[in-house]
Amino acid sequence: MVLSNHAEAATVQDPAARAQALQALRELHDRTCPHCTTATVHTHTVFGEGNAMARIMFIGEAPGETEDQTGRPFVGPAGDKLNGMITAMGLRREDVYIANVLKSRPPDNRTPLQHEVDACGPFLIEQILLIRPEVLITLGGPATKLILGTEAGISRVRGIWAEWAPPAGHGAPIPVMPTYHPAYLLRNYTAKTRGEVWSDLQAVMARLNLPARG
Ligand code: URA
């Protein structure tokens, strides 16, 4: 489903116009999202933030406690880990765009339910169409499931390039690199997971011709 013609802004190369279109989408979301306007336990919606012209878009699962308090994505402990991943790539947070499948915090940080994803997901899709990044990096199971439509676990699909096909008439497929969720890395930061996530990020850097590091 495409919610509006906001996605046409992706053809606009003016950063201010893109940012304005994102703001309009944020307002539409907060007024009409069937999930976020009826969910009751959250304080703030967390639309997403970053560079409207970003080459890379990270997609997480849903806001946690700190994100709910601040209205900003990935600003708690998982955010620290994501920041480390972005820095390791030689980038700054302001260079990329960061969003989530759900834009309001699920009770007790539980995994998003299918009806919540169905309600909130179209706004994420619209964000992708509007920003039209060169690569999507899905962080963990729920984001990967929504974008790739796969039931396979993240450890099976991470590190393997895939594609997200936009709705008909909305342009070319966008390459997708699924990788571990930063919160998972916080709980399981072993030499193995550290090496795997770094190899996933290096694959993205190589594809975008970013300078090799480390
Ligand atoms: N986990 C997520 O998936 N998203 C956030 O914004 C924070 C934690």
Tell me roughly what share of residues is in helical segments: 40-55%
Q: H/E series, N to C?
A: HEEHHEHEHHEEHH
Number of strands: 6
CATH class: Alpha Beta
Indicate the overall shape.
globular
Give the percentage of residues in beta strands.
Answer: 5-15%
Indicate the low-confidence ranges by residue numbers: none
> Over the alpha carbons, how many angstroms does the gyration radius reach?
16 Å
Provide the descriptors you would attach to this structure in a database record.
globular; binds uracil; Uracil-DNA Glycosylase, subunit E; single chain; six-stranded mixed β-sheet; alpha/beta; 214 residues; 8 helices
Written overview of the protein:
It contains eight helices and six strands, in the order H-E-E-H-H-E-H-E-H-H-E-E-H-H. With 214 residues, it is α/β, with parallel strands linked by helices. The chain has one domain: Uracil-DNA glycosylase-like domain (Uracil-DNA Glycosylase, subunit E), CATH 3.40.470. A six-stranded mixed beta sheet has the order 1-3-2-4-6-5, with helices on both faces. It is globular. The termini are far apart. The site of uracil (URA) has 12 residues, from loops.
